[in-house]
Design brief:
Structural class: mainly alpha
Coiled coil: 66-93
Largest sheet: none
Number of helices: 1
Keywords: Coiled coil, Membrane, Transmembrane, Transmembrane helix
Transmembrane segments: 6-25
Length: 100
C-alpha cells in the first residue's frame, strides 16, 4: 500500500513540476518584457522632457524675435514719418515762387 501511495505522490510531484516549470519560464519572460517596457517608458519620459524644453526654448526665442521685429517696425515707421515730413517740406519749397 505504501508503494501505491508513493507512486501517486511521485506522479503528483512530476505533474506539479511539469506545470510549474512552464509557468516559471513565462514569468521570467514577463519579467524581461516588463523591464523592457520600463526602459521604453523611461526613454519616452526623457524624450518628452526634451521636447518640452525645446518648446520652451523656441517660445523664448520666438518672443525675442518678435520683440526685435517690433523694434524694427517702430524704427521703420519713424523713418517713414521723417521721410514723409521731408517730402512735405520739399514740396512746400517747390510751391513757393522764387524771390526776384
Amino acid at each position: 500500500m505504501a508503494s501505491l501511495v508513493d507512486g501517486v505522490l511521485l506522479t503528483a510531484l512530476v505533474a506539479t513540476s511539469a506545470c510549474v516549470v512552464p509557468m516559471y519560464l513565462k514569468l521570467k519572460r514577463l519579467d524581461r518584457a516588463q523591464a523592457e517596457y520600463g526602459r521604453a517608458v523611461a526613454a519616452s519620459g526623457h524624450a518628452l522632457a526634451s521636447a518640452g524644453e525645446a518648446v520652451r526654448s523656441f517660445a523664448g526665442e520666438g518672443r525675442e524675435v518678435l520683440d526685435a521685429l517690433g523694434r524694427k517696425i517702430e524704427e521703420a515707421r519713424a523713418t517713414l514719418a521723417e521721410l514723409e515730413a521731408a517730402q512735405r517740406r520739399l514740396e512746400a519749397r517747390r510751391d513757393v515762387p522764387p524771390a526776384a
